[in-house]
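Pilot study result, target chain (363 residues):
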Amino acid sequence: MMRAALALARRSLGSTWPNPAVGCVIVQDGQVISRGRTRDGGRPHAEADAIAEAARAGLSLNGATAFVTLEPCSHHGRTPPCADALVAAGIARVVSALEDPDPRVMGQGHARLKAAGIAVEVGEGGADAAEINAGFLLRVREGRPLFHLKIAGSLDGRIATASGESQWITGEAARRDGHRLRAIHDAILVGAATAAADDPELTCRLPGLAARSPVRIVLDSQARLSPTSRLATSARRTPVWLVCTNAAPAARREALAVLGVEIVEVERASDGRIDVLAAARALGLRGLTRVLVEGGGQVAAAFLKAGLVDRISSYRAGLVLGEDGRSAVGGLEFARLSSAPRFRLVSARSLQGDTLETWRRED
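Predicted structure:
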């Protein structure tokens, strides 16, 4: 039952921020009688969604067990606490995968259930629940979202030829899977050079998932993004955030803001570029929990040097471009192997001739 609740939570990834993606399955006499998950924009919560489904079917929840992937909330926000809703519904037992570290909850949801005489069990499926909501947990604990670096390159780690040609190094199946990644993240992030060179849309173009296109973010210290770019001209349809420094000319910022681009000003690093740690904090303050970093090499290097890359999805094609090709990652400027960022292989699979490897940062 918890596996089913976890599957429901995964379905909500990328659409619930600033809230976590949660799944709930309610069982009575060994039979599933209702299911719920956190809906778009974070409301309703999974428990309320499952309770409402049962109500629509005219089913009583008296004596039922609720399997939930995160501790039910105990605070009043835009909706009443889910812990109270479970009590009112007559739930007799709650199996919760994980305690919520949000200071507004942090064990209080479980305590409220116990005070009402509901049996509470915590921990089943906890590791999977923590992975699903790794971004939410990072934002609560460290004030920043999870950053997931996507690389599509050659066997020798090149993402373009010396002339800049990159379409297409990987095949159609790998590109489709890259769009799947976009759909399960809150935002996609690229640097100013990538935005200028490729003029990308950065939307999800899988059939039926266009509405899951995330926020599009450009790191652009001087606000050089062209007002005629595809990003700027579509900002009112799909949000675009431009992260710049206070050195960016006001006229450029205003020209983009008129088009609907949200301007996010952060501190400068010592080299005059954007301080990526400051950018990470700013994105966390705006509620983002999962950000897909798509390029280019200098942006990837900046996030790696800052210790901000938490996951890597590496799509590798069976070709070699040589040292004059453009590297997937810019210079990291360390002299010893002990200084290199290290990652652990989570999975590897074939995608019609290409290989997708998923890596997790070693803490």
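One observation from the pilot: The longest helix spans residues 172-183. A full batch analysis is planned for the follow-on phase.
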